[in-house]
Predict the 3D structure of the following.
Amino acid sequence: MDFYNVRKLTPTSGILEAEVPASKSLLNRALILAAFGNGTVQLSCGDFADDTLAMLDCLSALGIPWSRCANGLRIDGCNGHVPNQNAMLNVRSAGTAARFLTVALAFAGGSYTMTSSEQMQKRPMEILSVLEDAGVRINYLGERGHFPFVMQSDGIFQEDLTVDTDLSTQYASGILLAAAVSRPIRLHLTGSRTHGSYISMTLRLIEQFGAQWTRDGDTIAVTPSAHAPARAEIEADLSGACYFYALSLLLRMRVRIPRVHFDTLQGDIAFLRLLEEKGVQLSDTPEGILADGRNVSSFTGFDVNMRDFSDQALTVAALAPFATSGTHITGIGHIRRQECDRIHAIVSNLQSLGIASEEEPDGVRITPGAPRAAIIQTYDDHRVAMAFSLVGLMTGDITIENPTCCKKTFPKYFEILDHLTK
């Protein structure tokens, strides 16, 4: 197994800048809209990571043409008529591909053998029961409600579907995306995350692709798009950018990430507002948001509900040891069902660092302290690896187990750290 020794980062008087890949959350949503929609779309996206490659490989297996072009991808949409309706697909570890493709194919119809990585097989796919209730036939090749399975569908023609957002807002997004390129539906949302940031992202994106939607409380009605746009711009990945923006607070320095702006579709902009609350000054420049932490002398702990930007819970947990008071993160019970049990990963690794912390069903409590040298267990989870590297950039005594797990969303992350700390 590979290991990466994180070197201490010395703050500079200049501005730290780093190129991050395209947002896989936006790009994989856009790929569904482009691939199943009507027309040819050029997606301007720059670099992208393994989750998007998994999606593209699946599109190839379905016979949907795509090609690389200058600074992005060209997709020839199938207008809801999948060329290969008897395909075998491997979504690997890409949760967006697993959920969005499964729903889109259920709407389109056909017979599909859906396989995945071993890690993905451990993650429940509750959306499958929603599809079964809508008439889709699923033969599970392993545990019920999990990959792998064979799905046979004649299309979904129900006008009303219901999804529990507490399980995953990606299920709601999958249905909204599929409806935007197929047929009208009314989606009824239940649970505590009915207005979650990722649902808002999806709604804004399907609108860009020509679909119309209305909302009445927790019910969203979607009317499909007649034709896809010729071009679409995909933002830089704000989730990945946040690890660098965190350094503005941690090391009292200036950080700017290109192609990240205040008008972003991505909900993780809320993390930058947390930094602002701790004294980091934010300004939107033509190149990207500039975070300036030079006037921060110290910062208190965080007391925050991170339900709508939970990808950054690990980032806040990595900052917490260096605060002047305790941290309490709530609203993140759903991250136990992601690439790993992320709440357990937070507490386990903090305890390895000698930092007192306590698991809660829906969150975590962290007491500040001086981290000791430790090996960080990543649980093959890219967010664990990147978040806890921040501790190493502060102390220089941290080793990351299995850093290659970052290929999922940010393949060059540790190459960038090498460059910054050389």
Summary: Residues 180 and 224 are 4 Å apart (CA to CA).
